[in-house]
Fold this sequence. Notes:
There is one protein chain. By secondary structure, this protein is of the alpha/beta class. It has two domains: 9-102, Arc Repressor Mutant, subunit A (Orthogonal Bundle); 114-364, Vaccinia Virus protein VP39 (Rossmann fold, 3-Layer(aba) Sandwich), CATH 3.40.50. The chain has helices spanning 9-34, 37-44, 50-57, 61-73, 93-99, 114-132, 142-167, 172-179, 192-200, 213-226, 266-276, 303-317, 331-342, and strands at residues 78-81, 87-90, 182-186, 205-210, 231-235, 251-257, 277-288, 347-352, 355-364. The strands form two sheets. The protein has a seven-stranded mixed β-sheet, with helices on both faces. A two-stranded antiparallel ribbon has the order 1-2. It is globular, with a radius of gyration of 23 Å. The structure holds S-adenosylmethionine. Residues 148, 152, 187-189, 192-193, 209-212, 215, 237-239, 257-259, 262-263, 269 line the site of S-adenosylmethionine. Residues 148, 152, 187-189, 192-193, 209-212, 215, 237-239, 257-259, 262-263, 269 line the site of S-adenosylmethionine (SAM).
Amino acid sequence: MTQQTDPKPADASSKISDILNHGALNLALAIGYRTGIFDAMDALGEPVAADDIATAAGVDPRYLKEWLGVMVCGDIIALSRNEAGQERFHLPKPYGDLLTRRSGNANLGVYTQEIPLLTHCAMEPVIKGFCTGDGVSYSHYPRFQAFMTELANAKHRQVLVDRFLPAVENGKIVKQLQDGLEVCDLGCGEGVAALLMAQHFPESRFTGVDVSREAIEIARQEAARRGLKNVAFFALDAVNMKDDPTFKEAFDYVTAFDAIHDQTRPSEALESVYAILKPGGRFSMVDIAAHTDIAGNRNHPMGPFLYTVSLMHCMPVGRVEGGAGLGMMWGKEKAMEMLSEAGFQKTEVTEIPDDPFNFHFFCQK
Ligand SMILES: C[S@@+](CC[C@H](N)C(=O)[O-])C[C@H]1O[C@@H](n2cnc3c(N)ncnc32)[C@H](O)[C@@H]1O
């Protein structure tokens, strides 16, 4: 057993104070991102009066002043005085690079929304879950679901077609998609990935499946709006596909982006994947890059954040009706074990270009 040294009381106290300050800053950062204050300050580009920021961002000056207090005390926004001794506020460029809508792939502003949104949606049902063990249904998370789609939109648009797919089997899958494959995207949500792939690979046919009727309706409307004829969407529980003759050995390639660990019956969902693939068909599962044991994640740079998102969303939605409740941090070892139990004899696990949060689990039937 390894020896663990307990922290001194003073260390523990200053750590908790830091956490209180950082938690408060996360909330204020989320407000600054959502209201566009960071974008406005970034565009102003120099130290200015609070009223000028309020005008540029279109926000109330009194609320802004209180918010500036948080940001200055948190060392995010720089405070100076002009020659007349009046206060001037400035967003340093390194923060503008991370907290504005121009940040692109480096945008961390969008992630500041996550914990406040989850607190708003699920604090009470999750606390109740600590007593009852019950899951929390998706209906508690309407704004969080919309946020996840926004996140998926940004991620898939930047990574899927240009970086992820070309790396699968050293470009072989892209060549085959250009020639024409039958593809199923499982847990497709509002269809962001399936729609993008359908647009880029007109010779292939895409089937998006999700248990959420609302998400499928949105995906269908978007396909119609874009005039795409090579994509269809079905509101189905992935688990039922394995017993549906329509889908038996129907696909050359199945994808699941962040869509297995949330499911209530993930083992059966993976059995479905195996059943709907043609012999020799391939499966790309993109899921969180973590270890199954907590100890393996101790040095993960975003460990507490990811476990919290899992605690507040992934694990409880997966526990509904006695579900497995794997949680987002189910980890590589558990994922490999479950893929093997579903029938996949060999799984290759690789990192994904520009996506440090996920692994690519690649299997062949
Ligand atoms: C985190 S979202 C990922 C959505 C999408 N793949 C993306 O990358 O944006 C997980 C999705 O899995 C879906 N899902 C959960 N359980 C499911 C099930 N049993 N069958 C099919 N889809 C399911 C949810 O409705 C949700 O849309």
